[in-house]
Design brief:
Layout: E1 9-16, H1 22-32, H2 53-58, E2 65-72, E3 78-85, H3 93-100, E4 105-111, H4 118-130, E5 134-139, H5 148-159, E6 163-165, E7 167-170, E8 178-181, E9 186-190, E10 196-199, H6 203-221, H7 225-232, H8 239-252, E11 256-260, H9 269-279, E12 288-292, E13 299-303, E14 312-321, E15 325-334, E16 336-338, E17 342-345, E18 351-353, E19 357-361, E20 364-367, E21 370-372, E22 376-380, E23 389-392, E24 399-401, E25 411-417, H10 420-436, E26 441-445, E27 448-453, H11 456-470, E28 474-478, E29 484-487, E30 491-499, E31 506-516, E32 523-527, H12 539-552, E33 563-571, H13 579-597, E34 599-612, H14 617-626, E35 630-636, E36 642-649, H15 656-664, E37 669-679
InterPro entries: EF-G-like_DII, EFG_II, EFG_III/V, EFG_IV, EFG_V, EFG_V-like, P-loop_NTPase, Ribosomal_Su5_D2-typ_SF
Protein name: Elongation factor G
GO molecular function: GTP binding; GTPase activity; translation elongation factor activity
Length: about 675
Amino acid sequence: MNSASPQTHRTVALVGASGSGKTTLAEALLHRAGAIPRTGSVEQGNTVCDHEPEEIARHTSLGLSLAHLDWTGPDGTAYTLTLADTPGHPDFVGAVDAALSVADVALITVSAVDGVVAGTRSAWDAAAAAGVPCVVVVTQEDKARADFRRVLTELRAEFGEHLWALELPIGEEAAFRAIADVLSEEAHVYDGDGTHHDEPLPPEAEAEEHAMHVEVTEDIVSHDDAQLEAYLEGDEPSVAELERTFAREVAAGEAVPVLVCSGVNATGVDRVADLVCELTPAATERDGRILVGEGSGGSELKVAPNEDGDTLVHVFRTVADPFVGQVSMLKVLSGTLRTGDKLRNATTGVDERIHGLFRLRGAEHVTAGTLAAGEVGAVAKLTGSPSGSLLWSRASGTARPAATPPRPPVYAVSLEPASQSDDEKLPVALARLTAEDPTLVVDRAGEHTVLRGLGDTHVAVAVERLARIFGVKVETRPAPVAYRETIAGTASVEGKLKKQSGGHGQFAVVQLTVSPLRPGDGFEFVDSVTGGAVPRQYITAVEKGARDALASGGPQGHPVVDVRVELTDGKTHSVDSSDMAFRTAASIGVKAALAEAGTVLLEPVSSVTVTVPNDLQGAVLTDLSGRRGRVSATEAASDGRARVVAHVPEAELTRYVLDLRSITAGQAELTITPDHYAKAPSAARA
């Protein structure tokens, strides 16, 4: 295997819509590089990157997969590339964020058949948020109805005129076997093995290609004074000079090259690798970013990829492996990482030892003794370092990677363990699952364990992994709505406990006034006892008893909130009174007050924000109205789309993310945040 220096290493995130050919392109690149003997297919379930059983069954990527390869450029330079193949399904956008957090370039795949779709915009936005330079690759050019020029027009209309086609297909659909190189004005004609030879452009392609050549060249030289001056004097820069200038534009985000290929017949695949190596910044040309300090804030610190600096490692994704345990994907931000190193997790405080470094090629582990600054690899058994950790050679200090976009959950199910053994193992298994994927959230709703994620497929795959990896079988049911109650009026009651059964008895009497508070005020306890009717040592017990009664549920079976409990009087016994007696008496009294005054059922209401193309705003508003939603704002988003903000009862949001995707053909962005409780309609049921 070649041993290219970090100066020639690049981590390439393959991002784009589902079905746009990311995994097929990765497979073609690996084969063309000689890393694998033959190409597999997504349909047959034998690709390098889609190797998990859940992916094979669904014929689609569901997680982040790394694939290392060595590449030799046209000038003989040895490069190493780490492909980070990501899912296009919106439920798994967390994997896209993880890949982009360590990528040197984002390779955005766009189908020559489907063109720009919702997933294309999502990938573009994610890359922009991560500050990663982009290259667009129009894939599937060999398929029926492929139309590169239509797609190029869509791309420039959607994302800007700074997208430049550096290649044009010569022939399309089944006839796609050659590419016109816009800078060199040559035709690259492909043979059956994926190699190409150069020929003069065919006459029918000359005019279009030359017009594109002039346009691209003029844009490139306009960014370099010396090249511009020479160009105006009639001296056009060489292809190599144009590429160097264009590479600076790409690194600065001022230009985005558009390439074309077919991962199936390998036309253009080698050119994708060549141009990624030539036009995008190397790993050592991009500083890492971390947040240093305690709490949710912290100051941002740039980290230069210096091989001689402190060792600083970003664990960007962990995956549970049934054979070797936890596998941690990592990028060395600074220093050199070696097998046997001891590092401190600056995020969690845990000490870790690097047991054995390797590079990943799908499920294959390729041994690597060291990883230099800028390189990506993996290590097993870092049990105290979940996704999003920083490992540091420094003995003190708190730090974490720069924040990725928040992805709050929008879909939930209740988990019911299949057996007592499953019930016992479930908490540990869920903790490991959420350590892998921070977009999964686990919480409790009464007696229920609730798993929340970004959609039904996200949650379904997590449940399948619980069974396959951790041996925990669960059934899923709709997540319960967390209803609450509050007292309907004021009630003054007596709570009394009097028991005598030999020896010390139990005696306590409390006089309570229980009344409602304003929504959101929670619980208030007031001690108004005078004259020592209830000794001071028992006051705390009375408050605890009141809290016990409210937490155990009101007449309608739900926890009670927004209540004021005032202790006004009571009685005690010199021998038979105790903390437990007064705690029990207070609980009895509060329950009596709730029964006497009655309770009002409260339902949780969430703040819902939907960002959607303007022409779909009406459909979204109509749907929200049908869900008892109260729209609080409609405004223009920064990208020209419409943003709708509404308050919607949680009971109406059980399948909202799925319905919204159907209504908008996947073009909407959704966030759901718990907001407040409100009086439920009389028809509401637990």
